[in-house]
Design brief:
This protein is mainly α. It contains 4 helices and no strands.
Length: about 120
């Protein structure tokens, strides 16, 4: 097998792995959000970190495997969340954005347009 063919085979295997893991990644984000809003009070630093990490993992890998908009939106929300974690303001805007993101991703995570 040529070096290029071997590279393509490895890339295809990584792509298949990402596709298989994507539902679990999105479920992790959904669970992290649920933990953040569960008691109606402000989420703990640990809960916010879990949500941030779940978004970060999607943002960091989605575009590599052809899910550019999925990654862009995860990055956008992740950055807003990071700013909120630093200054302590704006939490109330985050849950609706994550919920909208998850609904959109459930319909078609490879879509080029975010609605």
């Amino acid at each position: 097998m040529s070096a290029e063919a071997e590279f393509r085979a490895r890339l295809e295997a990584l792509n298949a792995r990402f596709v298989a893991q994507l539902p679990l990644m999105l479920e992790k984000t959904e669970r992290a959000l649920a933990a953040c809003v569960a008691n109606g009070a402000a989420p703990t630093a640990e809960q916010l970190t879990a949500l941030h990490e779940s978004l970060h993992s999607v943002a960091g890998s989605a575009a590599t495997f052809g899910y550019a908009m999925l990654g862009q939106q995860a990055r956008r929300i992740e950055q807003q969340l990071r700013m909120m974690m630093q200054d302590g303001n704006g939490w109330e805007a985050i849950p609706p954005q994550v919920e909208q993101y998850l609904r959109w991703a459930a319909r078609d995570p490879k879509a080029a347009v975010y609605q």
